[in-house]
Amino acid sequence: MNFTYLDYTNMIKNILNGGYDICNYENIRASKKGVVLRHDVDFDLKKALEMAKLEYSIGVSSTYFVLISTDFYNICSKKSVAILNEIIEMNHDIGLHFDEQRYEMETIIGMKKEVLKEVSIIQKIINKPIKTISMHRPSKLTLESNVHFEGLINSYSSYFFKDMKYISDSRMHWREDTEDVINCNNYNKIHILTHPFWYSNKIENTREKLTKFINEAKLSRYESMNLNFRDLDQYIHREEIY
User: Do 79 and 149 have their domain in common?
Assistant: First the structure.
């Protein structure tokens, strides 16, 4: 499967044609044959919005897990809040993408306290309850502990990570053929993790995608500065930095 919007669309159609329900984390258990679509937003909220719009056009919903502690985007900014609200308006869910590496924690109890703090922050920003959590770069302790979070569904719990068929496109690499997994009819429940960052209209390799993202970051920084620095073009022009 290539990392294009067309290929992703075809995967969704393949899922539906295979008789699967597109479920969320709350209703998957009630489905006899269901798929949960999960997106970890590691780098770029705008790419998440593009994926959300695509899914909405197909008529399916999924869950977008966003980070609180990242240097790549700020969910408190006006632009980010607008993106999150637009994703929600398209009937998608927002979950917490929790980065354990952000904290110095040695126990599950300590991690749970930090999780609740981050959940509270996101809920205040989007004015909606957060019901799900996924781990960013999960530790061995987390993966092996089947952690239960009060009031939250853990996407890395044994039900979603082991009992269901789990496939992921981490680091722009599917470890199994998605078409085979969907079409083999061996699995009643499938949990699919994608990262919107990797998807685009045309086929690009990993280097091309990363280079494009880094270059676009310079333009984004310029545009943000232009809103906060009067007569910026007197010192540097937009064309000079891209």
Answer: yes
What's the number of domains the chain is made of? 2
pLDDT for the residue 103: 87
Whether residue 93 sits in one domain with residue 16 = yes
Helices (H), the chain: 5-17, 45-58, 78-89, 108-126, 140-145, 158, 178-183, 206-228
CATH number at residue 74: 3.20.20.370
Q: Same structural domain for residues 131 and 235?
A: no
Q: Which domain holds residue 72?
A: 5-204
| Separation between Cα atoms, residue 121 and residue 114, nearest integer Å | 11
User: What are residue 166's phi and psi, to 5 degrees?
Assistant: -110, 125
Contact 20, 34 (CB under 8 A): yes
User: Given pLDDT bands bounded at 50, 70 and 90, which one contains residue 107?
Assistant: confident
Backbone angles phi, psi at 194, to 5 degrees: -125, 165
Give the pLDDT mean for 167-196: 95
pLDDT in tens, 192-229: 999 999 999 999 999 999 999 998 998 888 888 998 89
Same domain, 151 and 219: no
d(CA 175, CA 115): 29
Q: Which of 42-46, 52-56, 200-204, 229-233 has the lowest mean pLDDT?
A: 229-233
